[in-house]
Structure formats: structure tokens, C-alpha cells
Amino acid sequence: MHVLFVEDESKIANFVNAGLKEHGFVVDHCDNGDQGYESAISNDYDAVVLDIMVPGKDGLSILKSLRRARRNVPVILLTARNELDDRLEGLNLGADDYLAKPFFVEELVARIQAVVRRSAGDRQHLLGVGPLKLDCLTREVTCNQHSVELTTREFNLLEYLMRSPGRVFTRTQVLEHVWGYDFNPSTNVVDVCVQRIRKKLDPIGGSGWIESVRGVGYRFRQSES
Amino acid sequence: MHVLFVEDESKIANFVNAGLKEHGFVVDHCDNGDQGYESAISNDYDAVVLDIMVPGKDGLSILKSLRRARRNVPVILLTARNELDDRLEGLNLGADDYLAKPFFVEELVARIQAVVRRSAGDRQHLLGVGPLKLDCLTREVTCNQHSVELTTREFNLLEYLMRSPGRVFTRTQVLEHVWGYDFNPSTNVVDVCVQRIRKKLDPIGGSGWIESVRGVGYRFRQSES
DNA sequence: CTTCTAAATGACAGTTTTGTAATTTAATCA
DNA sequence: TGATTAAATTACAAAACTGTCATTTAGAAG
Predict the structure, then answer these.
(1) Residue A37 clears pLDDT 90, i.e. is over it
(2) Searching chain A, which residue's CA lies closest to the CA of residue B151?
(3) If you measure CA to CA, which chain A residue comes closest to B125?
(4) N or C: which end of chain B has fewer CB within 10 A?
């Protein structure tokens, strides 16, 4: 597993670097954005981890350039706690995940692995988070032995959220992946669809699992934490 | 892999018996239906291979009794070439597959394995037969790079047929598995649905893959043979 | 060739799904 | 607390889906 790690704060860099290597990753490290971008574009990494705030070309620009160049390598953004706007923009620009600093190296490792697995296209078809279970082949949804009928759209949205529990998705992202829109029409279909799912899940104990994140979007609640 | 084999003609029995064992199966053999039924009901086989014409309780009765007793062990029927009616009835009674005599042992082995795999619930989600490809997770249908939009019902029907290429399904079977009907209403929905699929597949080169078998039902064409 | 039956086709109507838009409720922050 | 903005909710209309039925076409058998 070959990853690129762009981060200027040398303390963090060294620490994370060592951590990733311990987990068997081969890590290339850059301490500035220009170098980082060059490296990302000219190598074939399994994943790229970008700090948003780095000298030279910043993380978001790197991401934007990569996507414009049609490079679909999975990208994980590292952001400071308060950089919510950047995070949001990053997701909409095509980041695959983000992690707020400070974080545990294990957390980063897990996210990298998840993101790589996902991009490799091997998808689990039995999803279970909390009491909710999805069978993506039969398209059955159950919660404490009870089952609900979801429409195609509803199922797709729920599946999308449940494939990355805990991760927040913007409405734009959802529209892109679940609706296939490649633009951002002013519509509230996502909201409405979420409501419809909630209404169906409520009576069978699936209440509260789709959370709203004000100003950002929606996420499926993680069991623990 | 533990299978029960009910067959009275000793020549065939010995031959097949030996063949199955060579392929690593553990085989129990009965040469009459009464014994066969006892054995099937009291043991926990991975699959049961039934000759329709055996002394004592015949194959179809055994099958019927098993299903009435809610035993879902996979059953493969062996029929003579001319026993089309029995075959048809057998399928409707819940047989998982059938094989017309004479057959190659390899063929039987393959069917047993397919049937066991299916009943174990591990389902392939990428189906490709001939030029047609189904992704059961994304529910995309493609044929020579082109893709079509199928409705839920249409997709389910196509998937059902494609999971057993070459095997003929009666309308009753299709209604049972794709529509979930547990009775046989006089309706031609299956016909209509098949037409709709064909009409969508035609323009992208998927013509002729769903075959009608006059007097019986439909089947998805096998690439070879 | 004719007859009989099964399958294919086409038109229609009821139902469900989907998205829009307007309104109400709730959260955030000064 | 009041103003502001986002999310939830509701009602409605357009579109898509599904099944029925009547009709046409094609296959099998006498």
C-alpha cells in the first residue's frame, strides 16, 4: 500500500509517518503543496493524505487540480477543528474523507483502508450499523426483526450513507452519487427523501440514525463513540 | 459435501455414484423411493438428487413431501427425455434444477455445486452471460458498453433468469420468486415484463437472449452449447 | 391448409414514486 | 429575546411503473 502524505508540521509529520509505516504502508512524505502536487500527479498512489494548510499550493487546490486532471486516487483531507468551511468545500471537490486534527494514527489507518477498499470496488453487500441491516442484493431493510419497504431512491440514499457511517455528506455529494446530478440545482429533494426514510424507519426502532449536521448535510450515526 | 442419490437402475446408479465420489462427494444411495424419503427427511444433506421414476414413492412425491415438511434442501431431479410434464411439475413443486437423462457426471457435479452454492446464500453480484452484464449492487445492465435502464421488476426478472442460464423457468416459478405470489393467478404479467425487457435490450445488441420455450416458460440463453 | 393454442404486442388505467414549492418548526447567534 | 437561517413537514402535480385486457402474430399438429 503506497500512500502520499502532505504535511508541513514536522512533529506531526514524523509521528504519523512512523505510525503509518508500522502498519505496513509505504509512505512518501512532502512538506509543501507544490512538491506534493507534483508527486501526486506523477505517481500512482493508492491514497493521498493532504493537510489543507500547507505552504505553497494548499490542500484544496491540490485536490481540485487532481480531480480536474481526472485522477481519481482516493484523497483524505486533514483539517483543523475549526476549518469547517474548507472541509465542506473539500468534500464537494471530491475528497473521499476527512479527519479533524488532532487524531489517532489508528483512525487514519482505518480511514485509508476503508477508502482504498471502496475505490477498489469491492463492496460488502450486507451492511449492518446499529440495529439496522441492509441487504443490498435483495434490497431488504430490517431493524429488530421488523422490515420496511423502501423505494429505489430511498434505498440508494440509505445505502450511500450507511456505507460510511459517521461520515458527513453534503447535499451536493448526495445529489451527485445518489441522483447522478453533476450540477447543483437548487432543490430540496435530498431533505425530502431523508424525511421519507426517517418516517419509515421510525416505527420499527430505527429512529435517530440519520443525523442532520446543521450547515453541512447528513450522516448515518455510528454505533459506538 | 454430503448428498443423497435416489436411483433404481443399478447401472446408472453405480456409475454416477463412483463419479460423484471421485469428485469428493460423500454419497448415500437408495434404490427406492420409500427408503429415499426416510433418508432425506432424517438426515441433513447438502443436496438431494432424485430420479423421478423409482419404485415405491416416486421422485415428485418425495419432493412434494419434503417441501410440505418445510425442508429446503436443494433438490435436483433426474428425468427421462420425454417426461416434460413431470419436469414442469417438479419445478413448480420446488425442485432447484433438473437434468435430462442421459447426462455426463460432470454436468451433474456442476449442477449440484451451483445449487448448493445458491442455497448457501453466497451470491455472485456480477453476472455475465454472453454479452450481457449485470451488476446486482448498482443494478446496472450493460451490453457491449451500452447500458440500459431497467425498472425494479424488470431487473429482478432478468437477474432471476440470468442466475441460471440455460435453465427453463415456468411462469409459476417466476411469479413465485420475482413477484412473491404464492398462488397461480391467471395473469400474463410475466409475458408482458419479458417483452418490456426484450424491447430495451434489443437496441443494444442483447437481442434473443431471453428465449421462450413453448408450453413451458422462459429461459436465459446459455453462451455455449 | 386449417385449426388450435401459446406467445407477442399495444393501449389503457390505477398506483406508486418522485420532485417542487410553500409553510412550519427548530437551531444559532447577536 | 428576537432575528436569521437551516431543516422539517406538508400538499400537490408530474412522471414512471405495473398490471389488465383485447388483439395480433406465430408455432404445432391434424
Answers:
(1) yes
(2) A152
(3) A137
(4) C
